[in-house]
Design a protein that fits this description.
The structure is a homodimer of 391-residue chains.
Chain A (H helix, E strand, L loop, with lengths): L9 H5 L4 H9 L6 E2 L11 H12 L12 H15 L8 E4 L2 H12 L5 E6 L3 H9 L3 E6 L1 E3 L2 E3 L2 H6 L5 E7 L11 H14 L2 E5 L26 E6 L12 E4 L5 H9 L7 H13 L1 H22 L5 E2 L8 E6 L5 H12 L1 E2 L1 E2 L10 E5 L4 H17 L2
Helix pairs in contact in A: 2-12, 3-10, 4-10, 5-6, 11-13
Chain lengths: 391, 391
Amino acid sequence: MDHFIGSLSAAAREVPASGIIAAVNHGRSKAGVIPLWAGEGDLPTPRFIVEAAERALRDGATFYTHQLGIPPLREALAAYYEAQFGRAFDPDSFFVTGSGMQAIQISVRLCLGPGEEILVPSPAWPNIAGAAIAQGSVPVPVALREESGRFALDVGDLEAAITPSTRAIFVNSPANPTGWVANRQTLEAILDLARRHNLWIIADEIYSRFVYDGSARAPSFLDIAAPDDLIVYVNTFSKNWAMTGWRMGWIHATPALKSTIANLIQYSTSGIAEFMQWAGVTALNDGEWFVRHMVDRARQGRAIVNEGFAGNNRVTYSAPDGAFYAFFRVAGLVDATEAAFRLIDEAGVGTAPGTAFGAGGDGFVRVCFARSSDSLREAMGRLGHYLETAC
Amino acid sequence: MDHFIGSLSAAAREVPASGIIAAVNHGRSKAGVIPLWAGEGDLPTPRFIVEAAERALRDGATFYTHQLGIPPLREALAAYYEAQFGRAFDPDSFFVTGSGMQAIQISVRLCLGPGEEILVPSPAWPNIAGAAIAQGSVPVPVALREESGRFALDVGDLEAAITPSTRAIFVNSPANPTGWVANRQTLEAILDLARRHNLWIIADEIYSRFVYDGSARAPSFLDIAAPDDLIVYVNTFSKNWAMTGWRMGWIHATPALKSTIANLIQYSTSGIAEFMQWAGVTALNDGEWFVRHMVDRARQGRAIVNEGFAGNNRVTYSAPDGAFYAFFRVAGLVDATEAAFRLIDEAGVGTAPGTAFGAGGDGFVRVCFARSSDSLREAMGRLGHYLETAC
C-alpha cells in the first residue's frame, strides 16, 4: 500500500468513492454532453434570490455569524413548515447546515458511533453510506422490493435487518434514485418499528415537494410523530430553489438537541456565510411560486421520459411517484460504470450508473429529468437511439 | 439524562461547548460592546474580492462544481505558495474546504480514528480538540512552558506525551491564543520526533503572515519537510483577506491523498459554492497588498495593547511573536467565564476566557487586536479601567 494511504486512519482508508462523481468527472469537460448525472436541473438560482445575497454582501455581511443560522433564517424555516403542515413550529428546532449533505453527516454523527449500524433502504443515494463509513459506522442496505422497475419498501425486511448494533433507520421519501414515496401507512409502520427498537429515524424529505399525484407534498413523519420520537429531519435549499451549488441545508429536530448540534456544527464548518443565509430567507419567504415552477418543470420532464421510453424493448421503467429521477433497467447491461462512461462518450448523455446506488442498483441507470423540455427531449432521443443500436 | 441526549452516540454526548462561543453568545446582541472575543477584525471583506463573487453570481455560477475546488482556485493557491516559498507547487496538492475548521476536521479524520490520540500544545484554539472529540478521538494537551506571559514549546514535553495510541501532532504556529512562533530549529525537532514515531503532523499555519520580527512569514514545515513526510497543512482565507464569514479554507498535502480527501469532502459538505471560489481566486491573485495592510494593522494593534498594559499591575503580559491576540494573565481572576461575561456587561469589552483554550489557560484572558486603532484604544481604556477598579 502507498506510504501515505497506509498511514491513514482505518475509516479514511475505507471511505468509498461516489460512482456518481466518477461519471461527472469523466464527462465534465466534454463539450455537448447533456448532463443528467446529478440531482440538479439547468436553471441557475433565480435573480430574486441571488439579489438578496448581493445586497447582504454590499452591506458587509462577511463576518462570523450564528453557527446555527441567523435568527431570520430560522424563523423563515419555521414559517415555511407552518405553511406546509398547517401548524406552528419553533424556530429553535431548525439548525442551518452547509448543505443537505452536512445535515446528513451531522445527523449520522448524532445517532451512531463507530461499529454501530444504520439501516438504509436501497438502492439509495450513496452519500448516506459514505457519511457512515467515513466515521467508522456501518450502513446496512435493506433492498427495496422491485417489480417492473417499480420499487417499494417492505417494512418486514427492515425489521429483519435489525441487530443489537442497529441505532438508526435512514428514510428518504420521496426517494433518490427510485422515486419510491412512502404512504402514511408505511411511515406509521416504520415509526412503530423505530419506537419498539428504540432507534433513531433520519428522515430525508428533501424531495417532499416533488410528487406527481396532485398533492402539494409527500406524506411526512411530521404528520404522525409524537414530540418525544427520536427523529432528525434533514433538508436542503438545493432542489426547491435551484440552489444546488450554494451548499445550504438544514436540520429540523427537537430543541433539546440544540447545544449538541451547535457543537457538532462548530467543530465541522462553524456555520455558513451570513450573506448566503439572506438568500435563504428570500427563497423561503418569497419563493413559493418558484418551487411550484420547479415541480411543474419536473412533471413535464417526467412525461417526456415516459414518452421516450415507451416501446423501448431494452428498458424496464416505471414512472416514479416522487423525486425527479428516472431509474430504469437496461437489458444486457453488464458493467454499469463502463456503460455510463460510454453513454457520455458515444451518446453524449451523462447518466449515473445504478451500481453507484448500492444493493439492488445493478443493471439500472439513473437520469435526472428536472430540466428544460427541449434539452431533455434531445437527451431521450440520443439515449433511445443508442440503447437500440449499441451497448 | 434527557430522553434525547441519552439516546445520542457517545461522541455526540461528549462533544464540548466552545468557551469562546459562550462569550460571543452572551454579548452578541449587547449594544456598545467592543468585540475582541473572536479571531476577526472590524474590516468587512474588501470590495475587489466581493465583486468577484458578485460577477460569478451574475454569470450563474450556482451549480454543483468540483468538490476539491475549481481548477483556477487550486492553481491560484499553488501560485500563492510559490510566491511565499520561492519554488513551484503542484495545484493537485491543494484541496479547497469549507473553512479552515473543515480543513482541520478532515485532517483529523484522515490521521486518527476513535480512541487514538493527537498531541495538542496548549493553551490552544479549542476547536482542534472539539474536532477530535466529536469523532471519538482523544486530544492530549501538552502544556507550553510559560514565563511572564510568554509561551514556548519544549519538544521534550511533546515526546514524553507520546503513547502507543498517538497518531498525530497538531502544530499551530504562529499560535492562537499564545502568539508562540516555532523557529526553524523547533520545527526540525518536531519533524524529527514525528519521523521517529511515525506520527502525522497537522500543521496549522493560518497566521503565518502575522509575525512581528520584520520577516514576511513565519518559519514553516514547508521549509524543511521531505516529500514523504506525513504532514497535512490546514489554512484559511479568513485572516489574510478579511473573509472570516465566508467559511473558505484549504488543505495542502501530497497528491497521493487526493482521492481520500475528495471522498471525505464529498461526504461532509461536497465542496463549496463556485461563486465564492472566484472570490478566493481574486484574493490570492490580486490581494497581496491587502494582506500586508492587514498585517500592518495588526502590528499597530499589538503596539496599542503593549501601551495599554504598560504599568497595569494586575496584568502579566508579553507581546506575542505572531498571530494577532493578546493572551494575558489577570491577577486574582477566579472564574474566567464569569469574568468574561462581566467584562462584557460591565466594561463593554468582549474577550475570550483563557479557560476556553484548555490546559494552561486558567487565569488568562484573550483579546484580538486585529482592528482599527481607535476602537482598540477605546477597548484598552475600558479594560484597563475595569481591571483597576473592579473584578
